[in-house]
Amino acid sequence: MPLKKRHKIMIGGFSTIVIIYMVVAGILINGIIVKQQLNHNEVLSRINDIKSSQTETESKLGELTESLIETQKSLNLLDASLKAELNEIKASTSEDFSGIIEDSLESVVTVRTDVGQGTGFILSEDGYIITNAHVLAGGREVSVTDYEQDYHVTSLVGYNVTFDLALLKISGIYNPIILGNSNDVQIGEKVIAIGNPLGLQFSVSEGIVSGVDRTGSNGLNIYIQTDAALNPGNSGGPLINKRGEVIGINNFKVGDSESLGFALESNYIKQVVNQIYQEKTGNDLIE
Fold first, then answer.
1. Contact 210, 227 (CB under 8 A)
2. Which of 4, 73, 88, 143 is 20–30 Å from 162 (CA)?
3. pLDDT tens-place string over residues 30-48
4. CATH number attached to the domain at 101-175
5. Active-site residue (options: 104, 203, 205, 235)
6. Which one of 146, 164, 182, 203 is the catalytic residue?
């Protein structure tokens, strides 16, 4: 049945409205999509900015942390340097070795065998110790007691009879004492000797350098003469200058004479220690 004219008009008008609605809705939807895309891009841009800012902040924090660590290291070195200088000034001007003794004692040890005892001192952070070889003579077992009275099982790394030196090793981390240059030793300069005379642990005696390049029983002119008191038990202990450096290892005295003690010069300690250590590792222990 053919549509009447008014029906056609109604249908056409409705179709037009639908089309207009669809066009308007499409425009609105497209506008919403575009706006959302812009918002999305803006959010992504802000996220990237935040990430970039965070990375930059982390980088700056890392740089600041490294700077603080380096500053602390510098302050520690400066503090140690100032303390050493203060100790030297005290020793030079007032004959007060207290600061040097305090720093040195923790590097000195008692060396015991089943037949006797002597002294030694720590040369490296990882526990290498030097003493006189004659301290170990006749013993079958050897042990070390540190300044904190901690007992350590000890191994013998090697020894040299000519120079009367023995290198020992204990486990742990320690504060080593520094070997000075014995070529710089001057007659008359003040020194201290640390040891265990007659079993009196960590005793200190003071004196001066009475002579250098003295001859020992080995016929070598490599000994420092000192009037600092040395007694049985001092063997293997350090002879220390006003800078807190070891300039010799206390070795012997002449008979029952007073003020006639002798210490092997520190440069020979270094030489022999490195020879012993090289035989085991191929490297030097002391630079």
1. yes
2. 143
3. 666 666 666 667 766 776 6
4. 2.40.10.10
5. 235
6. 164
